[in-house]
Specification:
This protein has 204 residues and is α/β, with parallel strands linked by helices. It has a domain at 82-203: Glutaredoxin (3-Layer(aba) Sandwich), CATH 3.40.30.10. Helices cover 49% and strands 16% of the residues. It is built from six helices and seven strands, in the order ααβββαβαβαββα. A seven-stranded mixed beta sheet has the order 2-1-5-4-3-6-7. β1 (79-82) and β2 form a beta hairpin. The longest helix is centred in the first third of the chain and has 37 residues, at 35-71. It is elongated.
């Protein structure tokens, strides 16, 4: 059977119909973002903003930590426990002169130093902190000695020797005298006149 060609009018109508379908569903124009692309861009911008905020917050905290470290000299970077079992922060001494007395409960020289040390606390205690640091024995021996024989000063129980090591102390009946800026102005084995002179100068 011979196939006849479509009439020209029918061919034209078919072409127009196909053209109309294509026009109803146009492709996105060049440079026009789709909804998915716009959402992705928005999320990227939000992530960048959060990252910048986190970076700024980290920088602020770092600066604050640096300022805090600079404000308190390293000499005060120690902690201990008092006779009452309270935590003692070395930074509490910052800003005023201080005397640290390193003693041991079995030391005869330390016992002889008690009147001089407590006398300093009584005379200069309003201006100079006087702190006893008991060590070279167990906590019970240190506490018993301090409670029974030494009044008027703060005592630290340093049976582990951490405060002693912090100040480089290797023997008992020694002193560390600090000015208000945390500078060591006298240390080691000091005679009573030497100790009193150093403290009197700091008290002004």
């Amino acid at each position: 059977m011979t196939r006849r060609p479509l009439p020209a009018a029918l061919a034209l109508a078919t072409a127009l119909a196909l053209s109309g379908c294509a026009a109803d569903d146009p492709a996105p124009a060049a440079g026009t973002a789709t909804a998915d692309e716009m959402t992705s861009d928005t999320e990227d911008m939000a992530d960048e903003d959060m990252s910048e905020q986190d970076t700024m917050a980290d920088e602020d905290m770092s600066e604050q930590d640096t300022m805090a470290d600079e404000a308190v000299p390293a000499v005060y970077d120690f902690a201990a426990t008092t006779l009452d079992g309270e935590e003692f922060d070395g930074a509490s001494l910052a800003g005023s002169p201080a005397v640290l007395w390193f003693w041991a409960p079995w030391c005869p020289t330390c016992i002889m130093q008690i009147p001089a040390v407590t006398g300093l606390a009584e005379e200069y205690g309003d201006d100079v902190a006087v702190v006893g640091v008991g060590g070279l024995d167990d906590a019970s021996a240190i506490s018993e000695m301090a409670e029974e024989n030494i009044d008027g000063i703060t005592h630290l129980v340093d049976d582990a020797g951490e405060v002693w090591q912090h100040f480089g102390m290797t023997q008992q009946s020694t002193f560390v005298v600090l000015d208000a800026d945390g500078e060591i102005v006298a240390e080691g084995v000091l005679t009573e006149p030497e100790l009193e002179s150093a403290v009197a100068d700091l008290a002004g």
